[in-house]
Amino acid sequence: MPPPGPTQPSPTGAPGAGPAQPPSQSYPSAPQPYSVSPQPGATPPPYPGPNQPYPNQSYPGAGYPGQPYGTQPNPGQAYLPPPGAMPGQPPSGAAPKRSNKTILLIGAAVVAVIIVIAVIVVMLPKAGITDPSGGGGIPEPAKTGTEAVQGYLEALAAGNAAAALSYAEQEPADTSLLTDEVLAASNAVTPITEIEVAEPANDYSPITASYLLGDQTVSTQFYASNASGSWKLESITRDIGIADMNGIALTINGAPVQDTRITLFPGSYSLVPTNSLYVVDGGAFVVTSPQDLTSYTMQLDISSTGQQKLRTAAQAHLKACLKQTSLAPKGCGFRIRANGTGAVKAKWSISSGKNAMKNAKFRLDLADPSRASAYTTVGLTVKGYNKSGSYVGRGVGSIFRANGNLSANPITVTFE
């Protein structure tokens, strides 16, 4: 049973009713401990403590007729909620209600702050460890040489070129092929896995590292130095010279090649001409480490597509030559003299090497890659006819060489 509440004060300040308030003192506006009415089914607030009025009493200051002043609470004592704040009481126009938007805005702000803090924590990189997604994040400075090697190799494995470059003591002059796209093509063929880095004997000793490049085990050494509190690696790339392709445009792992000397990260690479008529022999190669001293031999050649197009053009040209009735068909590489027979027309046919052009092996002129030739033998016979169409004699001829022009569209072929 709740404790009895305080008695109502009398206007005259009778004993037991508490001190009367002087008429000159106005009642201060009551603070409101509740901002919204409880929802149906919610737990009602606790009973007031001693010396606090019950909810069914008049709101202090409201007063009955003849009672102009309400009692004042003790210092620090909370006021009762205004009418309408408790379940079952009607709302009062004298006590403005706070909007639900205030609570919602405060709640949303708190959630937003929590989300921002969580995002910042997730995005903070660990020292020497790169973003595994390859998103281009730059790691914090490496605190040791071992950490620099570990971070560098993990950056390559993640396809993060910018992070890998950040470990260089001096950035390479040409970074056109040191990109995420080139690394992604390499990792698709020979991913870097099982990275292990050993602690060096001291800060001046080489740092040994091992890893798998595809299915090839690589063991190599790195040298690191401390530059203003951040450890950097002496070498992170390998320079490779490629043969001059005489104007034939090339790509490596899909990126354009701009010089005959290229700079690459460890990985696998494919050097490919942009023109499908060509191929680079030795163009598929692997750089195992920055210290890899492998010598690469690369040479421009005719692709299978180019060979087939040259053969098709040679066969078409041979048929066209056989249809000519001239004693010296133009561009065909064979002819016959009349030798006083009066022959003015000729009928040509193949006597041997009928499929020679189908099987021809064309070779590229490296000094002029627009030209290619194939040595082959096609035997010919010819019959001569005079102006009246009478047969006057026969002869033989041959084709021993086919020359192709790869710069023409379509490809053209002539014979010798």
Which terms summarize this structure?
Nuclear Transport Factor 2, Chain: A, 18 strands, 416 residues, 5 helices, alpha+beta, 5-stranded antiparallel β-sheet, single chain
Please name the CATH topology of one domain: Nuclear Transport Factor 2, Chain: A
N-to-C CA distance? 124 Å
Instruction: Indicate the overall shape.
Output: rod-shaped
Strand percentage: 25-35%
Radius of gyration: 48 Å
List the secondary-structure elements in sequence, H or E.
HHHHEEEEEEEEEEEEEHEEEEE
Main β-sheet: number of strands, strand sense, barrel status? 5 strands, antiparallel
Extract low-pLDDT stretches.
1-96, 116-135
Helicity range: 10-25%
What is the name of the CATH class of one domain?
Answer: Alpha Beta
Structural class by sheet pairing and helices: alpha+beta
- Output mean pLDDT: 78
Number of extended strands: 18
Number of helices, counting only DSSP H or I runs of 4 residues or more: 5
| Name of the CATH architecture of one domain | Roll
Structure description:
With about 425 residues, the protein is α+β, with helices and mostly antiparallel strands. Among the domains are: about 60 residues, no CATH class; about 110 residues, Nuclear Transport Factor 2, Chain: A, CATH 3.10.450. It is built from five helices and 18 strands. Strands 14, 15, 16, 17 and 18 form a five-stranded antiparallel beta sheet that branches. It has a four-stranded antiparallel beta sheet with strand order 8-7-10-12. The radius of gyration is 48 Å and the shape is rod-shaped. The N and C termini lie far apart (about 125 Å). The N terminus is likely disordered.
